[in-house]
Design a protein that fits this description.
single chain; alpha+beta; tt1808, chain A; six-stranded mixed sheet; two-stranded antiparallel sheet; 3 helices; 19% helix
């Protein structure tokens, strides 16, 4: 017999959320939000981009590392928020037992049509983190992406850069360039 799953309280702190035995949730302003399983296209895009980033970082001898579905604590309202992007890159060493990924420089979300509003809310929460240089949103229903890049003075642009099927994706935070369409290989969108 399996143990009954404990329901979350109506409002939680980040510390309480980390201690709560949850699966596929993120904490949004103190409220646990369930995350639906990713579609097959979503999973394929995440796998291809994650592998490409990992291989690139290894090839250039970078100390930075890519992580899938990491715990990210925004700078604003850190006591009540823990978001979960698809991918994140940090150049800060992690410690054994650490939950929240420290000092991310790149965050990637791959929304589905049903959760695009939640993804947009996550993007603006990510923008509050001082270490974040780029935020990438890669769509799972069309070959398209949006990229926000922080300027040298620390400001964010007023609108994201649109990237289409024939465009090259350039991630300056980690020095990676690739064709956007390559991320969709092995999907019906290829």
């Amino acid at each position: 017999m399996t143990a009954a799953r404990r329901l979350p309280p109506a409002h939680m702190t980040t510390a309480e959320f980390i201690a709560w035995p949850s699966e596929r949730h993120q904490l949004v302003d103190g409220e646990p939000h369930a995350m639906a399983p990713a579609s097959a296209v979503h999973g394929r895009i995440r796998a291809r981009l994650g592998r490409r980033i990992d291989e690139h970082l290894d090839a250039i001898g970078s100390s930075c590392r890519v992580f899938t579905e990491p715990a990210i604590v925004p700078h604003i309202r850190a006591d009540a928020n823990l978001r979960v992007p698809d991918l994140a890159v940090t150049c800060t060493p992690i410690e054994l037992g650490q939950v929240a990924l420290p000092n991310p420089v790149l965050l990637v979300d791959i929304p589905s049509p049903g959760n695009e509003i939640d993804t947009r809310a996550n993007v603006w929460a990510y923008a509050t983190i001082p270490s974040v240089r780029e935020i990438l949103v890669v769509f799972s229903w069309q070959v398209a992406a949006e990229l926000l890049q922080r300027s040298r003075d620390g400001a964010w642009p007023t609108a994201p850069q649109a990237i289409g099927p024939g465009d090259t994706l350039r991630l300056d935070s980690i020095g990676l360039s690739c064709r956007l369409a390559d991320l969709y290989e092995g999907t019906p969108l290829a």
